[in-house]
């Protein structure tokens, strides 16, 4: 089957991986609805219920009620509860809210930006609270972690990404997703040159600290375009069988940290 130009939403599209993914999709001939906090076709705070609802309403109008793909990339690396609001709760709410539009496509696909940080520094209690949808308890736990400083607070970020990865795998084979023909996968970047990492990678000390925390033996630190290329495939009609996968695009960190265990 030949698919014409597809309509795809990209969140966090004003910079970094989101911007690179939106550009790659447009270069391939797709129509992209760009979503971001302050600029784009849709501006919304995806860390709030009101912001997600407003984004869904605007996207529904711009897409005429039919979406072929969603790149749920928006996220923050804050060592605070803000990471929980955007990286997990906001992402899940947006995906679920746009699912009716995706169901109307002939080849609906979703891809989510996770992180290789899922493999380090998680707080199991927090992950369980997120997956259980316990918003208030998760926020309370996140605040408690953040109050212990950024090193402990980092668990907010890594736990939010681990939870969204597990949610993807949990939901992928269900009637609501696989049964509706909706493929959903995640991309787990490792070290990437983006606006968020500019300061970290600007000094030898910062680069060494990053390399010690998350080694990248295969081709070093990635550019945003390298991650975008994987997103672009996952959200394409050509990705007709892969679902429930977290693809680590991390220069080999996953293989180093987990060895030869396939999951």
Automatic annotation (TrEMBL):
<keyword id="KW-0560">Oxidoreductase</keyword>
<protein>
    <submittedName>
        <fullName>Putative 3-alpha-hydroxysteroid dehydrogenase</fullName>
    </submittedName>
</protein>
<comment type="similarity">
    <text>Belongs to the short-chain dehydrogenases/reductases (SDR) family.</text>
</comment>
<dbReference type="InterPro" id="IPR002347">
    <property type="entry name" value="SDR_fam"/>
</dbReference>
<dbReference type="Pfam" id="PF13561">
    <property type="entry name" value="adh_short_C2"/>
</dbReference>
<dbReference type="InterPro" id="IPR036291">
    <property type="entry name" value="NAD(P)-bd_dom_sf"/>
</dbReference>
<dbReference type="Pfam" id="PF00106">
    <property type="entry name" value="adh_short"/>
</dbReference>
<dbReference type="GO" id="GO:0016491">
    <property type="term" value="F:oxidoreductase activity"/>
</dbReference>
<dbReference type="InterPro" id="IPR051122">
    <property type="entry name" value="SDR_DHRS6-like"/>
</dbReference>
């Amino acid at each position: 089957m030949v698919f014409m130009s597809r309509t795809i939403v990209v969140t966090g599209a004003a910079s970094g991986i989101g911007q690179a993914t939106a550009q790659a999709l447009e270069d391939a001939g797709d129509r992209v609805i760009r979503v971001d906090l302050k600029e784009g076709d849709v501006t919304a705070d995806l860390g709030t219920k009101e912001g997600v609802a407003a984004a869904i309403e605007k996207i529904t109008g711009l897409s005429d009620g039919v979406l072929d793909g969603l790149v749920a990339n928006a996220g923050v690396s804050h060592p605070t509860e803000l990471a929980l609001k955007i990286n997990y709760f906001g992402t899940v709410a947006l995906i679920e809210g746009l699912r009716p539009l995706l169901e109307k496509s002939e080849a609906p696909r979703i891809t989510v930006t996770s992180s290789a940080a899922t493999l380090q520094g998680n707080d199991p209690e927090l992950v369980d609270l997120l997956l259980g949808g316990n918003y208030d308890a998760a926020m309370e736990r996140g605040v408690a972690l953040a109050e212990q400083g950024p090193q402990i607070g980092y668990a907010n970020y890594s736990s939010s990404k681990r939870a969204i990865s597990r949610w993807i795998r949990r939901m992928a084979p269900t009637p609501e997703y696989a049964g509706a023909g909706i493929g959903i996968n995640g991309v787990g970047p490792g070290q990437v040159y983006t606006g968020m990492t500019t300061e970290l990678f600007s000094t030898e000390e910062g680069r060494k600290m990053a390399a010690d925390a998350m080694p990248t033996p295969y081709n070093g630190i990635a550019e945003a375009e390298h991650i975008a290329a994987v997103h672009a495939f996952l959200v394409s009609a050509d990705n007709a069988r892969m679902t429930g996968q977290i693809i680590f695009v991390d220069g080999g960190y996953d293989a180093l940290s987990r060895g030869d265990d396939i999951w």
